[in-house]
Amino acid sequence: VGGPDSAHNYSVRCYEDLKTSVAHIDKAMEKRNEKVETNSRLRLKTTIDAMRWLIFQACSFRGHDESAGSKNQGNFLEMVKILASYNKDVAGVVLENAPGNARYTSGEVQKEIVGILALEVQKAIREEIGNAKFCIMVDEARDESKKEQMAVVLRFANKEAEIIERFLDLVHVNDTAALTLKNAICTVLLDNNLNVQDIRGQAYDGASNMRGEWNGLKALILRECPYAYYIHCMAHQLQLALVAASREVHNFFQNANFVINVVSASTKRSDELLENQAEEIAREIELGELDTGRGQNQIGTLQETRRRCRWIP
Fold first, then answer.
1. Could you tell me if 227 and 190 lie in one domain?
2. Were 135 and a residue from 114, 147, 201, 295 both cysteine, which residue would form a disulfide, CB within 3.0 to 4.6 Å?
3. Are the C-beta atoms of 261 and 255 separated by less than 8 Å?
4. What is the pLDDT at residue 311?
């Protein structure tokens, strides 16, 4: 019938291959697709595990220099390297042989995964609240990107009657007008299937746009829900108190340093200060405002007071 390379023998071999289902193109493609899917799942799982750890530890993802020759490629890539060091499959699939369009390490992929995780967290918070009433705590500030950000925190009692606080969302607002903040809060609650009528308290800082009696955020929320009583945020009050106290302490030490520099620069001023201090101590002793002790430790005269004050550093 001809040699082994003849057309007849070639056709016979093709016929035998056709009878073998393992050699069919659909089987080969299916096997190929399973391998690609397995590798893609491994790469995605590695990315998610690294991101979950960084999110839980409140660490940044991106590095200053993420190039291949960088000694420190950032927290995310360095975490992937650690995971790869304990798993040869991760090292080969994620770091070495990953295709350029399916590495799952870019910033866009990270943002998409973080968004999915945020939705799952919000869903869990909504299930934890159930039908309970809740309070809202809102704070707005401008971050380094020059964007106004509004943080929304919910405070509620769970089924075990424990007071729980959950960070719900961080949204960008165009301005800090009370109506803009109110609409943003309503949108956040609506997106999480929460009713504004279930609000039983609201806590903000003391800015006029937040606590204004007529057009502030507090007043706008009260019009929607009359049971949403307003409380000035205790943390913000503590911050204001600490700022005022630190300012007074700073002024005290600044003035004390000025006095020390002025007095120590002249022996005459130092003697005058000691003289005035001795007279002040003697006056307090005469008025009974200063306890001097008894017996040999008693300071009785102005001369003795002056002598003792000269030894005061």
1. yes
2. 201
3. no
4. 45
Nearest Cα neighbor of 128 from 170, 166, 99, 97 is 166
Residue 6 domain flag: no
73: which 2 tokens? 């490629």
Whether 114 maps to a domain, the answer reads no
Report residue 154: phi and psi, to 5°. Answer: -105, 140
Taking residues 10-24, report their average pLDDT.
Answer: 71
By the 8 A CB rule, do 61 and 48 touch?
no
How far apart (Å, rounded) are the C-alpha atoms in residues 264 and 299? 27
Q: What element of type H or E holds 115? A: helix 107-129
**And the tokens for 191?**
């997106």
Residue among 176, 191, 61, 184 nearest 114 (CA): 61
Same domain assignment for residues 209 and 279:
no
CA–CA gap between residue 77 and residue 73 (Å, rounded)? 6
Which residue segment(s) compose the domain that 289 sits in? 245-309
User: Does residue 117 belong to any structural domain of this protein?
Assistant: no
112-133 mean pLDDT: 92
On whether both 177 and 212 belong to a single domain, the answer is: yes
* 154-179 pLDDT tens trace: 999 988 889 999 999 999 998 889 99
- 239-266 CB burial, b ≥16 within 10 A, e <16: eeeeeeeeeeeeeeeeeeeeeeeebeee
Q: Is the pLDDT of residue 257 over 60?
A: yes
| Residue 170 belongs to some domain of the structure | yes
Confidence (pTM): 0.62
> For the chain, first and last CA: distance in Å?
122
Residue at token pair 């193109």: 25
Nearest to 151 by CA among 224, 235, 90: 235
